[in-house]
User: Fold DUF2277 domain-containing protein from Aminobacter carboxidus.
Amino acid sequence: MCRNIKTLFNFDPPATHDEIHDAALQFVRKLSGANKPSKKNEEAFNRAVDTIADAAHEMLHAMETHQHPRNRDEEAAKAKARSALRFA
Assistant:
């Protein structure tokens, strides 16, 4: 799994279209092994990003949970603290 793909489910406010698209782009980059596709592969690359983003958007809105939504700022602070301990 790509380290840059962040959890998008159960946050308040919910994940934006741009966050979902960015995660799909990162996933396709990982699968293809290319940060930027060649001109010949650009259409297939972009189509894959759009398809995955649509599927992720559908999944995130269909999922349900009984837990309270997480706060983005609190989760970012926790991640920063973990990083500080790890790389201290």
